[in-house]
Specification:
5-stranded mixed beta sheet, alpha/beta, 11 helices, single chain
C-alpha cells in the first residue's frame, strides 16, 4: 500500500513520495535464471526484461521499461510478475491499447519526475534501496502481485499491482499535470471531494469518523496527502470494477465498492474520474497489454 513507500523512501532515500488477469503466455518462462546472474528477457510480445545498470539502483539486477517508465526488480522477483506489472502499467497509460498513451501530459510529468516502480521479494530489500535524489517511486511486492486475479473473476487474493501501479501514475502524473484538480494538498478538487467522503477535513486520522463517512482510512502513519492518494485509488478502482467482490475485505476503509455506488453516493469524484478531458482508463487492466 502507499504507506509503505511513504515510510521507507521518505526516511531512507529522501525522495518525495506520498505517504498507500491473464498471464498465461508468460507462464512457461523460467524464473530461476536471474538468480544465477542470467537475465532472461522473457517471452512477452511487447516488453523485454533487460539488465539494469542505472545509477543508484544497484540493488535491482533487471528492469522493464514501459513508455519510458522504469519498473525494477530485485533478483528474487519472478519474471512473470515483473512482466505482469509492466503490462498493468501499459494498460493504465494506454487503456485503448492502440500503442499511444491516452494522456501525454500525465506521462510527460511522470518522466519529468523520473517516476519508477520497484519490486521487492522480502521487506528487507526495502532497507537497501538508495536511488538518487529527484526520483518519485512506489514499491510493489512479488508475493502480493497476483496475475490471475482479474482473469479469475476478481475473486481470491487481490492483485496489488492494480493499486501500486496506479499510485505512481496518480502521484507522479495526474497530481503534477493538474495540481488544482488532482493535487494531494488541501483545497484541490480531489481533496475537497475526499473531505466530503470522510465527513470532514481531518489533517490527522480521527479517533472515530462521522457515521455518514464512506471513506474511513485509519492508518495513522498515512498523512493528508497519502489519504488523498488512497482515496484516488479506491474511487478509480471501484469505478473500474476491481472491488466488486471485495466489500467485506475493504469496508473498514471504503464502502463504495462498485461503480454504481460511487456514482450515486460520491457524485463529485465520479464526475471527475469519468470526465473525458482527463482520459482516465475505463477498462480494468488484466495484465495482457495488446495481447
Amino acid at each position: 500500500m502507499m504507506k509503505n513507500i511513504s515510510k521507507i523512501l521518505l526516511v531512507i532515500i529522501v525522495i518525495v513520495v506520498v505517504g498507500c488477469v491473464s498471464c498465461s503466455k508468460n507462464n512457461d518462462m523460467s524464473n530461476n535464471g536471474n538468480e544465477q546472474g542470467i537475465i532472461n528477457g522473457g517471452n512477452d510480445p511487447n516488453f523485454k526484461i533487460i539488465e539494469n545498470s542505472d545509477e543508484g539502483m544497484s540493488i535491482f539486477n533487471r528492469k522493464v521499461v514501459v513508455f519510458g517508465i522504469d519498473i525494477y526488480g530485485v533478483s528474487g522477483i519472478e519474471d512473470t510478475k515483473l512482466l505482469h506489472a509492466a503490462n498493468v502499467m501499459a494498460q493504465y497509460l494506454d487503456n485503448d491499447e492502440d500503442g499511444v498513451v491516452d494522456n501525454q501530459l500525465v506521462l510527460d510529468k511522470m518522466l519529468e519526475n523520473k517516476a519508477f516502480l520497484f519490486m521487492w521479494k522480502s521487506e528487507s530489500d526495502l532497507n537497501l534501496i538508495a536511488p538518487p535524489l529527484g526520483r518519485l517511486g512506489q514499491d510493489l511486492g512479488n508475493d502480493e502481485t497476483v496475475p490471475s486475479f482479474v482473469s479469475g473473476g476478481k475473486t481470491g487474493r487481490f492483485d496489488a499491482s492494480l493499486e501500486e501501479v496506479w499510485h505512481i501514475i496518480t502521484h507522479a502524473g495526474y497530481s503534477k499535470a493538474y495540481p488544482n484538480v488532482f493535487g494531494e494538498n488541501a483545497g484541490t478538487s480531489l481533496t475537497n471531494a475526499m473531505d466530503k467522503a470522510r465527513g470532514g477535513n481531518f489533517t490527522s486520522i480521527p479517533i472515530n469518523y462521522p457515521s455518514e463517512a464512506w471513506y474511513t482510512y485509519d492508518d495513522t502513519t498515512c498523512t493528508y496527502d497519502c489519504q488523498a492518494t488512497e482515496y484516488f485509488y479506491w474511487a478509480m478502482s471501484s469505478i473500474l470494477g476491481a472491488q466488486s467482490n471485495r466489500l467485506d475485505e475493504i469496508k473498514q476503509e471504503w464502502k463504495l465498492n462498485t461503480k454504481e455506488k460511487v456514482k450515486i453516493t460520491d457524485e463529485t469524484i465520479y464526475n471527475l474520474l469519468t470526465d473525458s478531458q482527463y482520459n482516465f482508463p475505463s477498462i480494468l487492466p488484466d495484465g495482457t497489454y495488446k495481447r
